[in-house]
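Predict the holo structure. Ligand: zinc ion.
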Amino acid sequence: MTRQSDPAGTALSRRDLDLLRQSIALSETSKARGRHPFAALVADEAGKIVASAGNNSMPPEGDPTQHAELVAAAMAARALPPEALAQCTLYTSAEPCCMCAGAIYWTGIGRVVYALSEHALLGLTGNHPENPTLSLPCREVFARGQRQVAVVGPVLEEEAAKPHVGFWK
Ligand SMILES: [Zn+2]
C-alpha cells in the first residue's frame, strides 16, 4: 500500500500488520529488559525500519519522558529529512499518549498505526502509579494540528495485550 493508492493512509496492509507485530515483539523485549512493555518503530515509505525504541521511562537509566514513541520519533527525525518523515509510519504497541502524539506531530511523521487503544491499556494497567494513563485519544491531539497525521488503530489488541498481562500488579 503506497500513500499514492491510499492518500488518507487509513487502509491497513499486510506489511503494516507485520511491522505492527514487530513493535509488539519489541514490547516483549522491553519487558524482558526490565522496562515497561511498550515499544515503537518508524518505517519509511518502502517499509524499511529507520528507528525503533522500547520504553525507557524508569530512572536512573531513563526518565518519564522516554516513552517508546517519543524516542523512536526523535531518532527518525535525526535520520531523515522532513519530506521523507512525511511518508513514514510510526508503529506502536499501544496508542501514543498526548506527549508522544505531540512528538509525532512535531517531527512531521505522516502516519501512525497502533495496537492497544489508550482505553484498553487503562483496563490492563488500572491506576498503576508508574503508568497513570492520560485519557486523550491521539486522534484528538492530531485533530488540533495544522498538518494531517493519518491514524489506524486499534489493531491486534489481543496480541498487544499479552505482554501486559500480570505486569501491572
Ligand atoms: Zn507516550
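DSSP finds seven helices and five strands in the chain. The pocket of zinc ion is lined by residues 67, 69-70, 96-97, 99-100 (CB under 6 Å).
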